[in-house]
């Protein structure tokens, strides 16, 4: 019998045993237990992480290994190619350095069952640091599908690792993450979803402890090439979805922030997030 939820998570060489254990256990210990957990190795991973995962006897875990590192989007697409033909009702995302709240799945399934018009539901995130300590910041997102669509003119309407998809999302938008914008696979996914009439929403509850480190600002959040790519995508989103002039203002403001020094970007994140 096929379980109700397929959980998909990618691992790569920088994922540490300490973080992976916490992430995996937070899934296995969910109050809603009717799921299968699919894990893709995106290239070689740390030996202790591989040994840990191989030692788990939970039959809900399914591991797929690959020697070559291809990136997050392609790893998630490989997992989608496995789970979509199996007729799961829902597909949940997880990242290997975050921690899901114990009743995350229960709340998200209840929401989707009570809101059949919604294709994706996310939730609020509580930021933690490298050591798992609270950073004193909870980020909430717009709740209704109308608010989320309007919010997408500025930023992503959901936190990617919090989302649970109804399979209808991928039936409408395609069974894959777009791979044409590196490190913007989530933004492009919401872009495609909205182009195909999907509805995205959030619950107000915190559903994930999101690990925020200083390296995220140094290595992922800035850089001129990435900023140009983000600007190009944002302008295309404005055109495709019919957002007004303020979407252009937001796009260029984000571009200038992303090419700024990491300390300024970090400050802006604290103030504007």
Brief digest:
The chain has eleven helices and nine strands. The protein is of the alpha/beta class. The longest helix has 18 residues, at 224-241.
Describe the structure in your own words.
It is a single chain. This protein has helices at 17-28, 47-55, 72-83, 104-114, 145-151, 167-173, 185-195, 214-220, 224-241, 245-258, 262-272; strands spanning 5-11, 35-41, 61-64, 90-93, 99-100, 120-128, 134-139, 164-166, 200-211. With 273 residues, the chain is α/β, with parallel strands linked by helices. Strands 1, 2, 3, 4, 5, 6, 7, 8 and 9 form a nine-stranded mixed β-sheet that branches. Strand 1 (5-11), helix 1 (17-28) and strand 2 (35-41) form a beta-alpha-beta unit. Helix 9 (224-241) runs antiparallel to helix 10. The longest helix is centred in the C-terminal third of the chain and has 18 residues, at 224-241. The chain is globular and about 55 Å long. It starts with a strand and ends with a helix.
- What can be said about the biggest beta sheet? 9 strands, mixed
Strand-pairing-aware structural class: alpha/beta
**Strands, count:** 9
Task: Classify the beta-strand content into a percent band.
Answer: 15-25%
CATH topology heading of the largest domain = Spore Coat Polysaccharide Biosynthesis Protein SpsA, Chain A
Measured on Cα atoms, how large is the radius of gyration?
18 Å
**SSE order, one letter for each helix or strand:** EHEHEHEEHEEHEHHEHHHH
Helix residue percentage: 40-55%
* CATH class division of the largest domain: Alpha Beta
Question: What is the overall number of helices?
Answer: 11
CATH superfamily of the largest domain: Spore Coat Polysaccharide Biosynthesis Protein SpsA, Chain A
CATH architecture descriptor name of the largest domain: Alpha-Beta Complex
Number of domains: 2
């Amino acid at each position: 019998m096929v379980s109700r939820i397929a959980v998909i998570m990618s691992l790569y060489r920088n994922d540490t045993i300490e973080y992976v254990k916490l992430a995996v256990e937070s899934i296995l210990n969910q109050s809603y237990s009717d799921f299968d957990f699919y894990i893709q190795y995106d290239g070689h991973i740390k030996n202790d992480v591989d040994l840990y995962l191989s030692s788990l006897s939970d039959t809900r875990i399914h591991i797929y290994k690959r020697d070559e590192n291809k990136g997050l989007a392609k790893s998630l697409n490989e997992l989608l190619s496995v789970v979509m033909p199996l007729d799961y009702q829902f597909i949940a995302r997880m990242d290997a350095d975050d921690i899901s709240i114990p009743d995350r799945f229960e709340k998200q399934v209840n929401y989707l069952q009570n809101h059949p018009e919604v294709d994706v539901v996310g939730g609020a995130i509580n930021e933690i640091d490298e050591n798992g300590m609270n950073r004193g910041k909870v980020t909430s997102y717009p709740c209704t599908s109308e608010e989320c669509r309007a919010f997408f003119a500025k930023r992503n309407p959901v936190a990617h690792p919090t989302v649970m998809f109804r399979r209808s999302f991928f039936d409408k938008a395609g069974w894959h993450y777009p791979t044409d914008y590196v490190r913007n696979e989530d933004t492009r996914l919401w872009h495609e979803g909205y182009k195909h009439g999907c509805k995205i929403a959030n619950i107000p509850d915190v559903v994930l402890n999101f690990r925020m480190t200083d390296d995220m600002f140094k290595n992922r959040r800035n850089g001129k090439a990435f900023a140009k790519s983000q600007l190009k995508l944002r302008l295309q989103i404005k055109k495709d979805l019919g957002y007004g002039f303020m979407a252009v203002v937001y796009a260029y403001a984000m571009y200038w922030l992303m090419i700024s020094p990491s300390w300024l970007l970090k400050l802006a994140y604290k103030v504007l997030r």
